Amino acid sequence: MQTYVYFFGGGKADGKGDMKDTLGGKGAGLAEMTNAGLPVPPGFTISTEVCRIFYENNGRLGEDIQRQIDEALARLEGLTEQKLGSTDRPLLVSVRSGAKFSMPGMMDTILNLGLNDITVKALATRTGNDRFAWDSYRRFIQMYGNVVLQINKRDFDEIFDHIKQKANAKLDTEIPVAALQEIVLAYKALVKEKTKADFPNDPRQQLQGAINAVFGSWNNPRAIHYRRMNKISESLGTAVNVQTMVFGNMGNTSGTGVGFTRNPSTGEKEFYGEFLINAQGEDVVAGIRTPTPIRELERVMPECYRQLREITDRLERHYRDMQDFEFTIQEGRLYMLQTRNGKRTGKAAVKIAAEMVREGLITPEDAVMRVEPSQLDQLLHPILDPKAKVKELTQGLPASPGAVSGRIVFSADDAVEMAPKGRVVLVRKETVPDDIHGMEVAVGILTSRGGMTSHAAVVARGMGKCCVVGAESITVDERNKVLTAGGKQLHEGDWITLEGSTGKVFEGEVPTIDPDPASGDFAEFMAIADKIRRLGIRANADVPRDAEVARKFGAEGIGLCRTEHMFFAEDRLPHVQKMILSNTEPERREELAKLLPFQRADFEGLFRAMDGLPVTIRLLDPPLHEFLPKREELMVEVATLRAKNGPAKEIEEKEKLLQRVEALHEFNPMLGHRGCRLGITYPEISEMQCRAIFQAACTVRKAGKTVKPEIMIPLVGLPKEFQEQKAIVDRVAQEVFKATGVKVEYMTGTMIELPRAVIVADQIAETAEFFSFGTNDLTQTAFGFSRDDSGKIIGDYMAKGILTSDPFQELDREGVGALMKMGVERGRATRHNLKIGICGEHGGDPSSVEFCDQVGLDYVSCSPYRVPIARLAAAQAVVSRKSPGEGGRTV
Amino acid sequence: MQTYVYFFGGGKADGKGDMKDTLGGKGAGLAEMTNAGLPVPPGFTISTEVCRIFYENNGRLGEDIQRQIDEALARLEGLTEQKLGSTDRPLLVSVRSGAKFSMPGMMDTILNLGLNDITVKALATRTGNDRFAWDSYRRFIQMYGNVVLQINKRDFDEIFDHIKQKANAKLDTEIPVAALQEIVLAYKALVKEKTKADFPNDPRQQLQGAINAVFGSWNNPRAIHYRRMNKISESLGTAVNVQTMVFGNMGNTSGTGVGFTRNPSTGEKEFYGEFLINAQGEDVVAGIRTPTPIRELERVMPECYRQLREITDRLERHYRDMQDFEFTIQEGRLYMLQTRNGKRTGKAAVKIAAEMVREGLITPEDAVMRVEPSQLDQLLHPILDPKAKVKELTQGLPASPGAVSGRIVFSADDAVEMAPKGRVVLVRKETVPDDIHGMEVAVGILTSRGGMTSHAAVVARGMGKCCVVGAESITVDERNKVLTAGGKQLHEGDWITLEGSTGKVFEGEVPTIDPDPASGDFAEFMAIADKIRRLGIRANADVPRDAEVARKFGAEGIGLCRTEHMFFAEDRLPHVQKMILSNTEPERREELAKLLPFQRADFEGLFRAMDGLPVTIRLLDPPLHEFLPKREELMVEVATLRAKNGPAKEIEEKEKLLQRVEALHEFNPMLGHRGCRLGITYPEISEMQCRAIFQAACTVRKAGKTVKPEIMIPLVGLPKEFQEQKAIVDRVAQEVFKATGVKVEYMTGTMIELPRAVIVADQIAETAEFFSFGTNDLTQTAFGFSRDDSGKIIGDYMAKGILTSDPFQELDREGVGALMKMGVERGRATRHNLKIGICGEHGGDPSSVEFCDQVGLDYVSCSPYRVPIARLAAAQAVVSRKSPGEGGRTV
Quick one: closest CA in B to A780, which residue? Predict the structure, then answer.
């Protein structure tokens, strides 16, 4: 017959530590500790399978399971020589949920189950402590009433506070026994009133109720929400752990505590934790008494301390990971209540992983799986001082990590004006390319609109600048320079603080801490990851400064240099605008000639910074009207001038400009005149850019550096588009080589960012020497989602479970990923060694990096500050691929 | 050794009629006629293969080919008992190009080759006609000088006119011999001046020059342009035909003429053509003398006429098609110079095809290949009276066929106001959904922007209304109500005429002719096509009136009813706007309840009109802001009001509206909050629409009609999107069935219009009961082309040869088509009998219909007026599929 209930106790358990699927995390830990001979209060675990049956049978367990529970209970009673409901030696138990993954939102714990009006007296007698017994009883009714009977906690609190006041007690511990008894009576009356039934006196009925409540809590809305957010399968189910109570509050030889085998904050190898003498776990949590550092235990109960050290050392070696444990000492005897791999900060995770490899405790492969890639962020950016007091105003999307304080400005121009006087934070409804100069001088950016791939987010990440976007609850009045957030009005010059890693926004100036990314542990850990990974890691960088940062963070090349970002600089934009507004090719060429030296200088800087490494340069991509004043703003200006009878000449000029802007206006610019379409309509633009690239390359080559330019044609959908642009690249290259007398090796490739490009990838690969997946655009076109507009829709879809993640953040493997796979296969069918990378925002997302490894890409490229994350994710991908059972992520 | 030169003459030819690839069309015809024993002047054809060699060898032919030419020439001289350059019996030849497909732009003809100062005298002697000989000579120099030596024709004309004037001749035929000789001398001097060389006297050299000129003309810019536009392969090459001259101008027993075996204009079975006594072909073309109807020939040369009738009857039977022939009678002897399948009007094509089937001359399969689907348009719409004098103003894109005249209006409101007083043509920069009421009352629509699938084009086609879009050379000043076109300014109320089938725009009112689509020939021909086709044909129709038209044209159901078009009607839009501006679900439901009766009534009308046939209804698709005032217009209004210190209350109201419109604003609405995303965010909209559909269905069913609703969910990319919407459909259906006590069969399916939907088509097909390809959106997303913005880009791409056709007009088989194929395969892998159709604009494009047939779609759906075209195209697809050698199109 199938086993549904697993007993543990007396040095032996039915289950094992690797049975997390069946026993849940907690149950597996208890079984493992029991088997290891550790002092664990005995009990039994009802398996997750029973949870599934519970839901299939509409809340009934069936005879087989009930019999197994009864048998386990009898065994427990035998072992402990106690009996549920006994008037002499009553067995008291705790009932806890325990799924495979720890899950807030599910029922946590019911303690002291088994107490009733009769057993409470037996408990008092056995412990010689009336107060303890009645306090345990009233706690039990309260917990059970709230968790199982679903009575509002506030109702209990009201009764409690009323009687406590009446008894003139300041602390809970001062409430006299009589008052506790009065509370019990009043609680029971409350239960009767709310449930129309007596509080269950029968401990078996209590147990039944508690078990059902645990199973029922699996499907409460908070739990469902949590699972959805964390991608935990609905079908896993939870186990129920029924365990003999031990009491840390039975006098001064009792106590309870929690601890870690290493410091979870710093990673230092030190015994770390705290305890309370004569207390139950609840008291530690409630914060009524201040716990004592765990080393004190050595002084007050040296034997227990020694035993605890020995046990937890063993546990760490056994689990080969830092342990987070709970223990209780009952009258001088140590019991282990729980052990699990401890949560830790990024800093600690890195240190512990690196040290454990050095200690020989774990393999390098284990080590890379011990750090969540996103945790590395903490080591790369300033963080808020955890000790600082903060006033949160709102929370937006965590667009770009870091923590900064600055004075509020509402326009890019104001930012430029005020920045020399001190740090400024640029606050906008949304940002546009026009705002670049303001973004550059600001220490942080806050917007009320836009998603994780909005302009503000993408540019800020590229700059490694703290950024919070889409804070929809705030109102930004740019005209009147007022920010309304959290019910407050903030004005220009007021201080504000952004936490980019959480998306939180705080009032005033909050102190921050600069971390040290060049620390020994970090470098050591990254070296471990680098040895394992197969994927190359490059960075998206447009200017030499970013390239240097990227290289410092370990980038092995530049995977995407967006040349248009060079066009937005203040000294260049006028030429760009003039060029766009030109009506003839000669006029355009004249302005392009003025832009050439700027571009060349930028490329020289990039090539110098990346000496010896490849630099992928994408030709101009965005629609030209991005460089011009906004159409609707011009319309308003003209209308206002007209209404006010403004100067005729000014009106005429504005109208002329408006006309040209109108002519360039597009309904869907994302699908409009951009990418290689620009270079085909205006070959002179591609020509100028190529000339700047090759002149720069030759100059830097002459200076003795190694230059590896890779020229990338964007938005190709037709093989001929690529051929036409490549012809320009090759022609200009030859011209420059001839003129300078220097030759450099170069490659010409294309972005694969349109579904049609995927379909004809075999044809494109006939002339293209490399592919780089532009997964931002590929996601846009595959889904038909504009990344600028889809934030709300995607949010709605995630809330409704239609999407499990934002496809602009985490690569949609099923759809976009399938297209990528097709592109890789078709491209390599033509050119078997075709170099293929990715340069969309996904290049820095761990799950996406894993997928890129799986489908055989050669490299990923991401923003400089995400390079270490990508390096780690790439290593994890290899480990996951080699032992797929482990799953891609640490939990 | 390979044959490069094919002789014909003496009743036998080396080549055959089916060797068009090698001999070109003309050469194959000459060979076929010769083999059939018809009187063809002998000659030889230099094959198209030589053209390829000519280009590979930089204009040289090589020894083998030269020898074959010499041999053929010797054989020709033997057969005709004449000799090139002979002073006694000089051989004169014509040299003509002749590719597989007739191609304007290539060199046409050089006549009288072989003449020089000596042979001209021999010709004079032999013909006893000095004038004839010298006139032939001067014509030859002129033709050769122009075509081979590339001297401007004007230079020859100046000389000719000067001497003609000097000789006091009014007609060319009045120029005396001496003057003709003077012209010859002056022509030669001109050649010497321009080419720095004497005019070639040696006939062999003349022949060599003419052959090279023919091959050279294959790659002149006009020829290249023509091939690109008509998708003729560059590698085909042209043949050269060298043929003995015969002369129709050797007196009154000579003559020349052209004719058709049936009337090419009406299709009537009558001998049709014209001839001239004592003339060369050139004279007919030049229009100097008025030709005589061919029946006159019976009177003047009865034997020749009898022979010609017999020969052309034979040719028609032989080629099993109406023939277009040329003949010359030299001194009472008939020669056939050319025969080919004759070009004809749509009306004639249909009549001839139907009659030839009846005559047993061709099979039904042949018949359907004899009519270009686009020709049917002529039979379905009014056409301009071909006899009318017109002044063309401009040419735009032929968005929707027909020919209409009307008075110009510049806004939808003006259209509504002026329409009761007479026909109006709506002239706009572009149209928006707001303009629908104006489009409905206008007889035609003209826009200066937008492509073949712009709003104006799509809506106009749907309405069967004449429309010209993207007339980029015109300027539309909507504010001042001025249309500037072709250098003229037209104002409101001025007459204008549109020709939708060509995109031409004319000044004033041009008379039109109403065709008769219900004629016997048309019906008979369509019945032939219907028997052959496999694809079902449905129509896109939104209102009962369109559905009735569609049914009349043979639609077998409605493939797409766009419910949003119902939302734009004047009595509904306010409710729609209120609904959109609502902040809460109850408010939205209130407005939706008001819309329900309207929708229900529309659906009732549709179901009644389509009794017994399926009606596919798509739930709301466009972004909601399409129903609201334009954002930028509101911004201008507010700014103007502010600048003028307008009433505070009005400003406040407008600003409030603007705020809501701002909130709905999207950067790329095509990729935004539309399609099923609306129904998921606002399930109450889908609910209302389903309720209206099922209530209407039940009402019409009760009235004894057969109702087959097919509910279609738009823009699905994720299987769960579809499931969620289908759940609403099913729930509402059951509710309505219960409430009305009536049940109707229905299906729920989805549009496949996103690349992601293609990828997961297998999953979608688990719940979707049918697919309909939305190839407009699929083309947009596969290419990353916004159809509203891409007109210019696509035009540029076609001019540059990057695209061979507009993918929004003709399905891009390689990219979008490959996605469709994938969607079909994956969908049917799950549900093997899945019903699949197409409802994009491509459903009415013949080439696209052919592809839909090939990939196994069940039906295509197109605008009502294209239904006959689709029916024919579907039949042609079957014939092409069964005999792929024939190619998909008649040429």
Answer: B671
Whether residue B225 lies in the annotated active site = no
B794–chain A nearest CA distance, Å: 10
CA neighbor of A577 nearest in space, from A628, A634, A512, A647: A628
H helices of A47-170, where?
A: 48-56, 63-80, 119-127, 130-147, 153-166
**Residue B415 near residue B436, CB atoms below 8 Å:** no
- Residue B284: the pLDDT is 60
Q: How far is A668 from chain B (nearest CA, A)?
A: 4
Residue in B455, B626, B668, B670 to test binding to A, most A beta-carbons within 10 Å: B668
- Residue A785 half-sphere exposure toward CB, CA atoms < 13 A: 30
Query: What's the token pair of residue B151?
Result: 């001297």
Contact A670 B669 (CB under 8 A): no
Q: How far is the alpha carbon of B615 from chain A, nearest alpha carbon, in Å?
A: 27
Q: Which of the 8 DSSP states describes residue A802?
A: S
Residue of B nearest to A794 (CA): B677
B780 and A671 within 8 Å at the Cβ level: the answer is yes
CA dist B888 to B21, B356, B369, B875, B878, Å? 17, 21, 8, 11, 9
- Residue B591 in contact with partner chain A when CB distance is under 8 A: no
**Beta strands of B790-880 (E only): which ranges?**
835-838, 859-862
Specify the 3-state DSSP secondary structure of B845. coil
How many whole angstroms separate alpha carbon B153 and alpha carbon B685?
Answer: 70
Neighbouring C-beta atoms of residue B294, cutoff 10 Å: 20
Note the pTM of the prediction, 2 decimals.
0.80
Q: Are B754 and A681 a contacting pair at CB < 8 A? A: no
Q: Pick the catalytic residue: A51, A839, A852, A862?
A: A839
- Chain A residue with minimal CA distance to B719? A802
Would residue A304 show up in a list of annotated catalytic residues for this protein? no
Position B890 pLDDT exceeds 70: no
All residues of chain A having their beta carbon less than 8 Å from the beta carbon of residue B819 are: 755, 759
Cβ of A360: how many Cβ atoms within 10 Å? Answer: 7
> What is the C-alpha separation between A674 and A622, in angstroms, rounded?
5
Which candidate in B839, B842, B852, B862 is catalytic? B839
What number is the ipTM of this complex? 0.80
| d(C-alpha B118, C-alpha B283), whole Å | 26
CA A409 vs CA A431, A439, A629, B740: distances in Å: 13, 11, 21, 63
Minimum-distance CB partner of B781 among A642, A755, A760? A755
B 723-782 residues with CB below 8 A of A?
A: 724, 753-756, 759-760, 777, 780-782
Phi, psi at B596, each rounded to 5°: -50, -50
SS3 state at B513? strand
Per residue in A237-294, pLDDT tens?
999 999 999 988 887 899 999 899 998 878 999 998 888 888 876 666 555 567 788 9
From the candidates B51, B304, B455, B862, which is the catalytic residue?
B455
Cβ atoms of B273 and B260 within 8 Å: the answer is yes
Pairing label, strands A614-618, A558-562: parallel
Beta-carbon separation of B640 and A640 below 8 A = yes
Gap between the Cα atoms of A143 and A156, Å rounded: 10
Distance (Å, whole) CA B753 – CA A417? 49
Distance CA A494, CA A480 (A): 14
Beta strands in A401-481 (DSSP E): 403-409, 424-428, 444-447, 466-469, 475-477
Report yes or no: B180 and B129 within 8 Å, Cβ to Cβ. Answer: no
pLDDT at position A41 is 97
Name residues whose C-beta falls within 8 Å of residue A795's C-beta, 6 or more positions apart in sequence: none
* Helix or strand (DSSP H, E) at B872: helix B867-882
Q: Which two tokens stand for residue A762?
A: 């075999």
Q: How confident is the model at residue B286, as a pLDDT?
A: 52
Contact present, B804 and A682 (Cβ < 8 Å): no
